[in-house]
C-alpha cells in the first residue's frame, strides 16, 4: 500500500464486520490529519493492539491513538453519550488525550436509554427464526426515530437544556405508552432522571460539539488528508446487505458522502478490509459457515469473540463470491487482507468461488436472504501452510502456499491486495505495494 498515493481514503469492511478495520485505521493514521466515523454507533468495536496494550474503541475513531490527529464523529453516526463519556474517561486514564482532539457533529443523533430498551424488548418479542441478534446498543430504534423525525434528538439539542427537558417529557410519555402496549412493560421511563444524566454528559461533551461538515470541507480545502473509518461491513448495509439481518445504516462505502457530509469525489481511495476467512455475529445467512472443527479451529486461533458483546463469532471459509460483490459495490481500489496467520496449521483451505442455486451456478452474488438460505457454496481447495517459529517480516517470507492463497484471493475478488496482516499488533503488517511476488 503506497500511503502517499492514497489521497483521502475510506476504510471499509467487506464482510459482516470485525474484519480488522480498527487495526488498519491505526496503521494508516500515521499518514493522515483527520479520521472520521461516518455511520453506525456503539455497535462497532474496533480493536487496536500496540505491544501489550489493547484498546477497544466503540465511538471514538481509531485514529485517536496517534498524536496530532483530529478525530471526528460526523452527522451520520448515532451517538450514545454514556458510552462516549466512558470511552473518553477510559482512554484518558490510560494516557491517551481525547477531548482536545475530538470533534462531534451537532447533527449526530442521540441514542437515548429508551432506544436500548426497545432494542432488547423488540428482539425478545420475536420468534427465534426472526431475531436479528443485534448488539442491543439501541442502533435500530435510534435510526428509526431519526427517519420518523418528530421524536428524535440530535447532539445539538443537548445544548438547549430547557427545551431538551421539555421535549423529553413528551417523548417519554409516548414511549411509555408504546412499551406498555407492545411489550407489557411495567417500568416507565422517568424523563427528569434521563434529562439530568444526559445534561451531565452534555457538560462534558459541549466543548467538542461543532459543525463537522464545515470542519471537513475546510480541512479538505487546506489540503489536510482525511481518513474515513467505516464501521460494520458491506454485507450489513441496510440497503445492500443481507436484509433484514443487517444494521440500520449505510455502513458500506456508499454511506460515506451522506454520513460525513462531503461530496463522494472527496474520497480518492477505498481500502477494503477483509479476513482470510469469514465471520459473522448475530443472525442471518452465512453460506460458508463451518459449524464443525474447522469453525472451532478458526474461532480459537483467531480469538473470534465479539469486541462489543463478547459473543462467539460464527466462523467459516473465505467467500470470494460475496467479497467480489463488496469490492464492486464500494469501488474498492485496494484491499487489506487480515488474519492470514490464523489459517496456518490447516492441511487444506477452501475458498468459495460461487453459489449453486436450484441446480445452476449463479452468475453474480445477491444479498437476497431467500436465495442465500438455499445456496450451496462451490469450493476450490488449496494447500494449507504451517505457522513458522520465525515471524513473517515481509511477504517474501510467507510460506509458498500462503502466498498462493493471497494471489488466488486477489484474482477472485477483483482488487489488488496491497497489505497483508499476520497478527493483531501494528507491527505484524506486511506491505505488498505492487502485488505479491509470485510463489
Ligand atoms: P473491526 O471491528 O473491523 O475493527 O475488528 P475487531 O477489532 O472487532 O476484530 C478484529 C480482531 O482481530 C481484533 O481482536 C484484532 O486485534 C484482531 N486482529 C486484527 N488483525 C489481525 C491479524 O492479522 N491476525 C490476528 N491473529 N488478529 C488480528
Ligand atoms: P464493527 O464495526 C460485527 C451486527 C450485529 C447484528 C446486526 C444488527 O466492529 O465491525 P445492530 O446492533 O447494529 O442493530 O445489529 O449487525 N453488527 C456487527 N457485527 N461487527 C460490527 O461492528 C457490528 N455492528 C453490528 O451482530 O447481527
Ligand atoms: Mg468489531
Structural class: alpha/beta
Number of β-strand runs: 20
Domain count, please report it.
2
Shape: globular
Rg is 22 Å
**How many separate helices?**
12
Task: Report low-confidence residues grouped into runs of 5 or more.
Answer: none
The fourth-level CATH homologous superfamily of the largest domain is Adenylosuccinate Synthetase, subunit A, domain 3
CATH architecture descriptor of the largest domain: Alpha-Beta Complex
Bound molecules: guanosine-5'-diphosphate, 6-O-phosphoryl inosine monophosphate, magnesium ion
Describe the structure in your own words.
This protein is α/β, with parallel strands linked by helices and 439 residues long. The chain contains twelve helices and 20 strands. The protein folds into two domains: 3-36 and 211-431, Adenylosuccinate Synthetase, Chain A, domain 3; 109-208, Adenylosuccinate Synthetase, subunit A, domain 2 (Orthogonal Bundle). 31% of the residues lie in helices and 19% in strands. Strand 19 (417-421) and strand 20 (429-431) form a beta hairpin. The two termini are 19 Å apart. The relative contact order is 0.15. The model has no long low-confidence stretch (mean pLDDT 95).
Q: In terms of topology, how is this protein built?
A:
Elements: E1 9-13, H1 21-29, E2 34-37, E3 46-50, E4 53-57, E5 70-73, E6 78-79, H2 81-93, E7 102-105, E8 109-110, H3 113-125, H4 139-148, H5 161-183, H6 191-205, E9 209-210, H7 212-221, E10 226-229, H8 256-260, E11 269-275, E12 278-280, H9 293-302, E13 314-316, E14 318-319, H10 320-330, E15 334-338, E16 348-357, E17 360-361, H11 369-372, E18 376-383, H12 400-413, E19 417-421, E20 429-431
Parallel strand pairs: 1-10, 1-11, 2-5, 2-10, 5-7, 6-8, 7-9, 11-15, 14-16, 15-19
Antiparallel strand pairs: 3-4, 12-13, 16-17, 16-18, 19-20
The protein binds guanosine-5'-diphosphate, 6-O-phosphoryl inosine monophosphate and magnesium ion.
